[in-house]
Amino acid sequence: MRLNINKIIKKDMPIILMIFMFSLLWMLGIYYINKYGDTPITEKASVIFAGMKIFGFLFGIYLFIKFLKWSYKTIDEKVDKEIQQK
Question: In this predicted model, which residue has the larger pLDDT, 53 or 37?
């Protein structure tokens, strides 16, 4: 089975963009903490960090489920091919 990357990119583009935006927010938060130290900005940055942790956890679950679906699909296809050959 060939993995069609263009299909995956078109289908998952919103998620890829969300990851990109959240990683930019993360880097911005780190920059502000390093530059300004203990200022009210660090509270905003800590909110960003908490959001990133939650988002990363949920995205990991999403990818795990997607991988399981893909692996079960390929296993089913292999089993079907073996049954057809017999």
Answer: 53
Q: Give 9-16 contacts, CB < 8 A, sequence gap 24+.
A: 15/59, 15/62
| pLDDT at residue 2, rounded to an integer | 61
Question: Which residue type is seen at 55?
Answer: F
Decide if 22 contacts 51 (C-beta within 8 A).
yes
Q: How would you class 29 by CB atoms within 10 Å of its CB: exposed for 0-12, middle for 13-18, buried for 19 or more? A: buried
Task: Give the domain ranges of the chain.
Answer: 5-85
> What is the DSSP secondary-structure string of 11-68?
HHHHHHHHHHHHHHHHHHHHHHHHHH-SSHHHHHHHHHHHHHHHHHHHHHHHHHHHHH
C-alpha dist (Å) from residue 28 to 8, 10, 31, 40: 29, 28, 5, 14
63-77 pLDDT, tens digit per residue, is 888 888 777 777 777
